[in-house]
Amino acid sequence: MADLSKTAKSASSVQVNKSSNLISLLAPVVCLLAGYIIWRFILGAGSNFSVGSDNGGFWPEREAPKTALSKMYLGGIIVPILIGTFLTMITFVVERFLTIAKANGTGNNADFVRKVQYHLANKNVDAALAECDKQKGSVGNVMKAGLHRYKEMTSNTQLSTEQKVMAIQKEVEEATSLELPMLEKNLVFLSTIASIATLLGLLGTVLGMIRSFSALGEDSGGGAAASKLSVGISEALYNTALGIGTSAFAIIFYNIFTTKIDGITYGIDESGFTLTQSFASQYK
Questions:
Q1: Please, which of 5, 20, 75, 152 could form a disulfide with 79 given CB 3.0 to 4.6 Å?
Q2: Which residues partner with 63 through β-bridges?
Q3: pTM for the whole structure
Q4: d(Cα 184, Cα 100) in Å, to the nearest integer?
């Protein structure tokens, strides 16, 4: 009996997608730097405050903000981190959206699978391959890899039908193992941001409250002190608002992307089932 591992083994029709990890490495650093620049030079610009000087370098003191946004500057040093976290989330949302949109292909995956089923029922493998070239995307790539092996097995006389089906199934599994990591890549950033953004916001709020109550303890001005405390608390709560908002957006988009990936994964599984069942019924 022919050895399946030797006879059916050949280079996979799908090659590893060696996409650069540069965005994964640089995006968080660049976004955090951009967050500080926005906080320090835009929100914290001297023209946005009635009291303060440009001295102080990294974190100059400011008082009496003129606009609502400039009040965010007074939220403290956690604010630029939260802004950078929000920008990081936006960056990976855009990156995942473009990647998953490309992975979806050019048409409806269910319609694509039905067209391939029709061509295979008529033993027209070349027409099925042409449909894969039109569809593209992850489902199209996996189906195309499986169809190449399918076409090869139709002319193979050394293997049994069961071995041929196993060879097709193995090719589909190999192609799938190359596609799925590309779909799930960088989702960890969204899940991490969803977890830590709220905690960062609470940390910023606690630090702001500590500063506010510390200032209250040093001031014996009665009503003026109470007024200053209320202002300090409102400024500290900007951290909470930024953290909760960033976390909420990250959770929403993470769930959207995982749902889309599940749909693509289902299409891939359906394509593999289509190929093996078609071959088993057509070439007994």
A1: 75
A2: 51
A3: 0.84
A4: 9
